[in-house]
Amino acid sequence: MTKTYRIGQIVPSSNVTMETEIPAMLTARQQIRPERFTFHSSRMRMKTVRKEELAAMDAESDRCALELSDAAVDVMGYACLVAIMSMGPGYHRESQQRLRQRTQENGKDTPVVSSAGALVDALQVIGAKRVVVVAPYMKPLTELVVDYIRQEGIEVLDYRALEIPDNLEVARHDPAKLPEIAATLDLSKADAIVLSACVQMPSLPAVAKVEALTGKPVVTAAIATTYAMLKSLELEPVVPGAGALLSGAY
């Protein structure tokens, strides 16, 4: 009998991309593996990507974890990388532990991953010690993200801040522009490219092209989160067309 897994996501209220890209990847996986998935979300209020608004939004994540545990999801992902990283070094560990505790208090014990933790873990999985980063945030927030990654022992050689403050505008950014943006970065010594350090900026359609053009593995926040969810479910982390991390090599 084919098993169906419930995928829970804690998302900013204005986020529309994680509920597109993660289902797209897991639906594509269904073509090559027997497991099936359904998708469930709870929302935290956020419209503008500013540090103060992100902190207020993060305070709502406990409620979201509780709501998703009511639905008995099999794994839940905190789908806002910058909200976690703007709270200070290593905060993804504290957040994941606290949110899992909320599910335990509700009679469940749901594994919790975060896009922030998933990204740094993914870079370690592929052995990337030096990376370049593309992010849609204003420069001060992008620098917080870069510093967070560096605190996890990964050198950021170069980065590009696209400086899009409105979260819905981030979702409208054309992923076809990403190969050209990646080409502006100094890739000479990079082990990998973080093509989207944001779960709201669409990137999945560009991943294969950037890998082909550069010869380097490409990771995004959404791809890393999908990998982390599959590993938490003890399922093979393989998705066709989703880059090196989900190729089955790791």
TrEMBL record:
Substrate binds at residues 15, 80-82, 137, 167, 199-200. Keywords: Isomerase. One of its GO terms (molecular function) is isomerase activity. The keyword Isomerase applies. The modification S-(2-succinyl)cysteine is found at residue 80. Pfam families: Amdase (PF17645). Transmembrane segments: none annotated. It comes from the Bacteria. The active site is at residues 80, 198. It catalyses: maleate = fumarate. Homodimer. PANTHER family: BLR3294 PROTEIN. Belongs to the maleate isomerase family. Reaction is initiated by nucleophilic attack of cysteine at the double bond, yielding a covalent succinylcysteine-like intermediate. This is Maleate isomerase. It comes from Litchfieldella qijiaojingensis. The lineage of its organism: Bacteria, Pseudomonadati, Pseudomonadota, Gammaproteobacteria, Oceanospirillales.
